[in-house]
Amino acid sequence: MDTIIPNDSCHPQEHKHAAIHYMLNRMNNYQMSKAAKEQEYNTIRQIMYNNKYNPSTLNTNTVKRTGKQENKDTQKWAKFTYIGKENKYITKMFKNLPNKISFTTNNTIGRILSHKTSSQLDNSGVYRLTCPNCNMKYIGQTDRSFQIWFQEHYHDFKYNNNKSKSAMHLLENHHSIGSINDIMQVLYITKKGCTMDTIENTTHIKKPRMATKSMIITK
């Protein structure tokens, strides 16, 4: 396998160069003959070329660690989702603070594979329901799967329970209920916590015409 993070991928430079640094350190630290080392060097250059890096920029020196190592137990980090060069401008605000900056990405192999092998409805996060009769929108969140939440929503509608606010709207106005594929839209996939709350609140702010006060109620 000669695949590493491509140079044109939306990843921070630290992530892109990690594999190259690892291969260089391995080449310099392993006991090998001059011929084997030269072959390894050419292999690294080919890998770089295949992944759209410029092999002429290859530095054969071992990556050196200088200075004292930070205490990992006391060091505070601020995590940012990397979206491109714009992140660099944002993180400049933290350069005079003791917090270290760590980048994370959403376009990971695991995330891509999970989207291909499982339905969105098997995840948790923020969703939107649309009333089939009046087109009113309900924005909410669930820490269970969307599939399970909708089954409970359907149960509340069928047996006239008052647990689901969206089901109450249908019952009070004598409206019908549609299938999960017809009336539910997955807005964001995320786990329970502050991130989910922030996304839901931001969705309400960004899309005020898509819901009324009576419908913006989180179950």
Structural class: alpha+beta
Would you tell me the overall average pLDDT? 75
Distance between the termini: 47 Å
Spell out the helices and strands N to C. Answer: HHEHEHEEHHHEH
Describe this structure in words.
A hairpin with a 6-residue loop joins strand 3 and strand 4 (137-142). The chain has helices at 13-29, 34-50, 86-91, 109-117, 146-158, 165-172, 180-183, 194-206; strands at residues 77-81, 100-104, 125-130, 137-142, 184-189. The strands form two sheets. A three-stranded antiparallel sheet has the order 4-3-5, sandwiched between helices. 40% of the residues lie in helices and 13% in strands. The longest helix is centred in the N-terminal third of the chain and has 17 residues, at 13-29. It has three domains: 13-57, no CATH class; 77-111; 118-210, GIY-YIG endonuclease. Helix 5 (146-158) runs parallel beside helix 6. The chain is α+β, with helices and mostly antiparallel strands. Residues 62-70 and 205-219 have low confidence and may be disordered. It is built from eight helices and five strands; from the N terminus they run H-H-E-H-E-H-E-E-H-H-H-E-H.
Based on the model shown, name its key terms:
219 residues, elongated, GIY-YIG endonuclease, three-stranded antiparallel β-sheet, two-stranded parallel ribbon, alpha+beta
